[in-house]
Structures are given as C-alpha cells and as structure tokens.
Amino acid sequence: MYRLLNAGLDHIVFTVILVALIVKYVLFESQGQLEENLIHDSLQRSQDVLENSGHFGKGIGPLGILRQRSRTRTVSFNSCREESAMAACKEDRGTQTEKDKVQGVLTEENNDADEDKPPRSLEECIAVINSEAGAKSLSNQEIVQMVEKKHLPSYKLESLLGNPLRAVGIRRTVVAPHTANQGSMDSLPYDHYDYTKVMGVCCENVIGYVPIPVGVAGPLLMNGKMYMVPMATTEGCLVASTNRGCRAMVNGVKSEVFRDGMTRAPSVRLPTAAQATEVYMWTRKKENFAVIKEGFDSTSRFARLQDLQVGIAGRLLFMRFVAQTGDAMGMNMVSKGTEAGLKALKKHFPELEVLSVSGNYCVDKKPSAINWIEGRGKSVVCESVVPGKVVTSILKTSVAAIVEASVTKNLVGSSLAGSIGGNNAHAANIIAAMFIACGQDPAQVVGSSNCMTLMEAWGEKGDDLHISVTMPSLEVGTVGGGTGLAPQSACLTMLGVKGAHKDNPGENACQLAKIVAATVLAGELSLMSALAAGHLVKSHLAHNRVKGGSSSLSSSTMPTTISSDTSGTSGITTTTPAPDGISSTKFCDVQPSGKASVGEVNSTNTCKPPAAVGDAKINAMQGDTVVSDKDSTSNIVLSPCQDPANISVPHSRDR
C-alpha cells in the first residue's frame, strides 16, 4: 500500500509539471514567437519599400532610415529578450550607450499609422500648421516636405514640435541628401541625449553629438586636497603623461588666484581727436569712473566693475571694462554691463558714437599682449618642489638636465620665435582637455593657454627641482554655457566645483582655475622630463599612432631616443650616456619592409643597423652617434621616397 501511494504521488507531480509546461508554451512561448514573427514581417516590409525607392541612392532614403530607427527603438524597450530581437535592437541604434534607461532621455513620438499614410498636400499641411493642432500633428514625412519647401524653418523644429529628439531626427533626414556621403551620419549618434539642455544655450541646428574619450589624471594634491582630474582628449600619451606629473609632485602643489576680472572693450568714435582726448582724460578721474561703475553694476547681482582701461587711436577710443563676474565665465554679463556703462557716458558726451561692443581690445579668443600683461579672467600662479630622488626614479632624468631643457625651450626658443604667452611646453594641451571635459568654451584655449613655465634647482645642494607656472588669463566658469550639460556637469562634480558657490560667489570658478593651473604644472613637469631624457618620440610612437596601420615613416628614419626600458621601443642603437640614475639601453630595430633585416648585436653589445640608415649622423639630445653602413649585412634597396636623405622628419604635432 505504501509503495502504491508513493508511486501515485510521483505520477501526480509529473502530471502537474507536464501541464505547467503545456500552459507556458501555449500562453507565452507561442505569443513570443508570434511577436517575433510580426517584428520580422514589419522590418521586411520596410526593407522592401526602401529597396523599391531609389530617390536617395542605394534604395535607402533618410526618411526611411528615420522611420526604421523609430520602430527599432520601440522594439528595443519591449522585445529584446530573444537573440533575433536583440540583433534588431543593435543594428540601427542611434547611440553608443548600452543602457536603455538614461537620465534625461526624451522619447520620440511614433505614429506608425500616420507614417504609413501618403503625405498630405502642401496646402493641407499649411492649414494644419495654422490650426490649433500645429506642426506637431504632422507626420515626419510631411514635416520634411514643409522644411524642404521653406514653409517651416529647420532651426525652429524643436520649439514647433515640442519634442527635441524628434526634431533632431527629422533634421538629420533633411540634411542627409545634401551631405557628401549619404551614410555619413550613420556613426554620428543622436539618441539618448537631453537636448533641452542644449536648446538656446549651447548649439543650434543640432543633428547629434560627438562622444570624446575622457581620461583621469591623479590623484593631484593641491592646497592640501586630493583631486582626480577629468581630461577629454583624443591624443595618446596626454593623460598618461599628466598622470605621471601628478605622481611626481609628492610634496603637493600650491595654487593661488592673484587677479580676477573678465573684460569687454567696445570701440567708440568722437568727431575729432581732441574730443577723444577729452573723453580719455575724463574717464581717468575717480568721480567720473564712479558714474560709469554705477550704470555698469546696476545690470547684475554679481558683475562689479573694477577698472576701465582706455586706449586711444586718433579719434577712436577703445574702452576695456574689467569686472568680477561671480562663478560665471562672464562674457555675457560684462557685455550687458558695458552697454549700461556706455549709456551713462553718453549722457556727458552725446556726440560719442558706439561702433562695436567688442573692439578687439578685450581680447577674446585671439593671441594678445594685453591679456599676457594685464590678464583676463583668472590670473593664477602655481608651484611645487619635486625631490631629486623623484626626478631620478619617476621622471627618469636629472635636475640639471630638466632645468637646462626648460630654459632652452620655454624661454630662449619661445623668445626667438616671437611667441606671446607661449613660454611653456604644452599648456594648451591640458587646458583643451579640461575645457572640453568641464564644459568650458574650447575657443578660449587661445587666451587661457598663456603660460610661463619656470624651473630651477632647489635646496642647499641644488638636488631638488622647483617648478612654477604663471597663467595670467584663465577664462573659466562653473555656471552657464556647456557647464549645464550632464556629462560636463559630472566632471565639474568630480572636482567639487559644480555650479555657483552658495556662500562666496566666485569661489567655485576660482577653485577651478587653481585646479587647471595645477594640472598644467603636472603636464609641464612630465613633458619637460621626457624631453630632457629623450623619451618624447618613443612615447608617441607607442601610444599616439594608429593601431594596425602602417606608418609613412619607417622606424629607421626616426630620430634616436634614449630609453629607460626595452618594452615596445622603436629606434636606433646609441651608446650615448643616459642621465644620472638611469641605465643606458641599447636596442636594435627591425626594418619594416617586405624583406625585413634585423640588426645584429656584436660582442661590444652595440647594434649593427640596417643599411637604410647608412652614413646618417644622428644628434641625440645628450650626445652624438655616427652610424655607418660599412658593417651592415643588409642589401635592401630603398625607393626615393623611402630614402632617409629625401625625408624630412616632421615635428611632433603638439610640441
């Protein structure tokens, strides 16, 4: 009886499982298969329509692409469980982000029923636009038609449709036929982006966005606090080099803002040069300056006029207004205040004629001596002392070598070139990377990169290194412009300077300027060390070349580099002594041609180079090496374009 009961229970359990599987298949699996078939049929019908249309080339029109992507996105939120549906999701996605739920994503209205209908006539569409329904009730194809017929302005699509993402998609459809290549925008993402932050602030006629890699350098010890610095760049070695500089400054960095004032300089004209001189003398009196300041300060809670620098040229005056602007970079704020100040001035000199609110005496986004001397934005000085042991162990050079290289390059070389504000190694590199990451105006790299880098031996015996950078015109802000975009805002948050300072307006912007200067200091230290040790070319060959491609220059035509290691090195054998504390490395190179020849190492541990460098005298940074082809065993014949005698080795693109 007990055995029969157990057998009955087994049959009952088996029956229940079988019934559950049948129910699951009938109610779920078949529905999923049906959904997949519907998706496949829908995409196939769209493909057939596209193939039958040859208007845009290759049978795929921009409007069809937009419609197909719209449907694909609808699928991606509902039925990406199966492998086939997942493939459909990934095929035409408009973003390079894997997440489906991104903060600030705007969903596109998708009326497939309307899109399948033939577009209405031009007169009907115009009537709809003028009705209460408005342009948003038109189908995408009808809106494209209206834009092409000049009845709807392309730049107003966001406001007319009330859906920025839909507007961007339609604009891409309109623009695509006019580009050099129909598929040129396929790899330009536009989905998963909050365009409400862009409208009216950052960009017009938007068709997408360009993702840029963001690296981090640090930790950077500045004024007793650690920072991880975001840098957006496509230049290999830049972040790694700056990170090395941060690591070398073990004693930390002192960074201070010693001047703060954004400028705007309108050009005005008087009837005669004598009257222009009268106005010039009038503005120099304190009581008269107070009149202009009262008008200027009335335009903002934060803008405060500090100085008025006037230049005269005949009957022209260039009036440089200098003002603090809180945590904003302040160009718009100062421009508004300048107009009010000029109105106050015209009450005393009605004959004064304003020619331009900006007369290039500011100076904005152009190299200038006045910014270098008088400053613009934040003026910052930054310093650090690097122990001699660190110079040897981390930077792989000596204090004497790096000081000599700095004086020769940053002072003598820049002076010989007639450079204004260019007494540095590559300040613009770090500033550009940080500006892009933190939402600053990239064009203001021009003035912001004004920098003087100084290095000198330090300590009782001169074993340590003192390095400083002085940057008189850092134009930065933590509110306004690109700082409101989510990724750039995140980078400012990393540094603890997002937005306006609650208690002390302007403190966040000044702090950002200090961090930028400190990061420039790290970049200057690392690059000058690489130059002093002869590592620059080697590092760029290793990190800043197209992977998998062939270089236009063979390694045998590149200048000699000194290396502290033997990993991944390309170059020519040298017996030049390395700086103190660094072992000299000897290496041979492989001739990158069809029939490669490897140099042989002889008993003296020196290299017999390939014949491609025969009779080439190479001046290394710290010695001379003469290479002869007498000992070479290679019989390689080079074409004229490969002959080192006919090749001019290019300068590094950023040094």
From TrEMBL:
GO MF terms held by the record: hydroxymethylglutaryl-CoA reductase (NADPH) activity
Biased composition (Low complexity): 550-576
One biological process term in Gene Ontology: isoprenoid biosynthetic process
Stretches for region Disordered: 88-119, 547-578, 631-655
Transmembrane segments: 12-28
Pathway it works in: Metabolic intermediate biosynthesis; (R)-mevalonate biosynthesis; (R)-mevalonate from acetyl-CoA: step 3/3
Mode of membrane association: Multi-pass membrane protein
Keywords: Endoplasmic reticulum, Isoprene biosynthesis, Membrane, NADP, Oxidoreductase, Transmembrane, Transmembrane helix
InterPro entries registered for this protein in UniProt: HMG_CoA_Rdtase, HMG_CoA_Rdtase_cat_sf, HMG_CoA_Rdtase_CS, HMG_CoA_Rdtase_eu_arc, HMG_CoA_Rdtase_N, HMG_CoA_Rdtase_NAD(P)-bd_sf, HMG_CoA_Rdtase_sub-bd_dom_sf
Record keyword Transmembrane present: yes
Cellular component terms (Gene Ontology): endoplasmic reticulum membrane; peroxisomal membrane
Catalytic activity annotation: (R)-mevalonate + 2 NADP(+) + CoA = (3S)-3-hydroxy-3-methylglutaryl-CoA + 2 NADPH + 2 H(+)
Compartment(s) where it occurs, according to its Swiss-Prot or TrEMBL record: Endoplasmic reticulum membrane
Enzyme class: oxidoreductase
EC number(s) on file: 1.1.1.34
Biased composition regions of type Basic and acidic residues, renumbered to the chain: 88-102
Classification via NCBIfam families: HMG_CoA_R_NADP (TIGR00533)
Family in the record: Belongs to the HMG-CoA reductase family.
Name under which the protein is recorded: 3-hydroxy-3-methylglutaryl coenzyme A reductase
Taxonomy of the source species: Eukaryota, Metazoa, Ecdysozoa, Arthropoda, Crustacea
